[in-house]
Amino acid sequence: MSIRQRLAAVCVITIAVTTLAAADDSSSELVPLFDGKTLDGWLLPNGKPPGNEWDVSDGAIHHRKGRGGHLISEKQFTDFELQFEWKIAHGGNSGVKYRTTMTPKGLYGCEYQLLDDPNHSNGKNPKTRLAALYDLYAPDEGAKQPRPVGEFNESRIVARGSKLEHWLNGKKVLEVDTASDDWKARIAKSKFKTIGDFAASKPGPILLQDHGDEVWFRNIMIRPLAASRTAE
To answer: Whose CA is closest to 207, among 99, 131, 64?
Structure first.
């Protein structure tokens, strides 16, 4: 079975449940995507269980140094508020992808960049720094208050309709409208230009990126949202 077929099989199981949950968020609550003890509910993009590069350490999903493949949620989400805590090793690079789409080259989607800005080469480019929408939009550096390497940060992603927000440690650092002319112009000049439904409001898994560096994620919570309402 191909990667595309494996992911499609997961989609069939989860889309119906997610769609019902997202139909009305008036009473929707944050629900955990990680139980703090196991990797239940997470798998590799090819549908297989995670290898030894991913484990659970001190109540956090831990990616060891090395390559083991990205980790994706079994459940899929369209419009949502995602909250998570994370920390990264010195000089580390990772990310959280959302609004993901399967392509022949793998899963592509919007990426909330996770980075040790001062000690990684991506820190030199505003659009690839911590909390950026990777390679497309730079965060508001004036609003960013990252904690020292080795300490957990709190991040939030809000995706509702065409509006995307990135938050870091209680401050909104980025806001984008994917229906805007500016967005369309940036996509046309980017490596995502051949992905016709890139960032579209449709079901997709949450992806924790394997970039070869050590990173930890904990308290991963999500709230399905109704696209017709305005995010606060």
So the answer is: 99
The domain that holds 88 is classified in CATH as 2.60.120.560
Distance, CA of 172 to CA of 174 (rounded, Å): 6
Closest CA to 80 of 137, 155, 28: 28
Category of 226 on φ-ψ map: left (φ > 0), alpha (ψ -120 to 50) or beta:
beta
How many other CB atoms are found less than 10 A from the CB of residue 205?
Answer: 26
Give pLDDT, residue 5: 52
How many Cβ atoms from other residues are within 10 Å of residue 91's Cβ?
A: 15
Give the count of domains, the chain: 1
Q: What is the pTM of this model?
A: 0.87
Q: Is residue 93 part of a domain?
A: yes
Q: Report whether 109 contacts 207 (CB < 8 A).
A: yes
CA distance 42 to 48: 9
Q: How far is CA 34 from CA 39, 90, 111, 184, 191, in A?
A: 7, 25, 20, 34, 31
Give residue 229's pLDDT.
Answer: 46
Torsion angles phi and psi, residue 117, rounded to 5: -50, -50
pLDDT score at 102: 87
| Domain ranges, residue 200 | 3-224
On whether residue 180 sits in a domain, the answer given is yes
Per the listing, tokens 């984008």 go with 176
For the chain of 232 residues, list the mean pLDDT of each consecutive stretch of 10.
49 40 56 97 95 95 92 96 98 97 89 98 98 98 96 98 97 97 97 90 95 97 77 41
Listing from the earlier edge strand, what are the strands of the sheet with 93-103? Answer: 42-43, 71-77, 204-208, 93-103, 106-115
